Amino acid sequence: MKKTASKEIKIELPGDLVEIVSRKEIIAMLLDKALSKAEYLGSRCREFEEKYGTDFISFKKKVEETQEENFKDWDDLIVWEGYELGHKEWEKKYEELKKCSE
Fold it and tell me: Which range among 9-18, 57-66, 85-94 shows the weakest confidence by mean pLDDT?
């Protein structure tokens, strides 16, 4: 997995929030968002797995190797691939954020 460089950012908050929100809490909120996104996209992938009774890689191979085009399968393949890529990306972001909280 490619390592992403960390960057420091400055966040301006209203004065009363600065007193009650810590760096750890901000990272925890970002972790929660990343995990929620990853779980949502993962659940969409599982819907396709249940629909077709197979995993993404096997379904992709089947669709690409079929002689007679099935446009519904191709449409589902494109959508499913988007969910797969998004799921992997948000899992990666989640893992990177966990390192920031250590």
Answer: 9-18
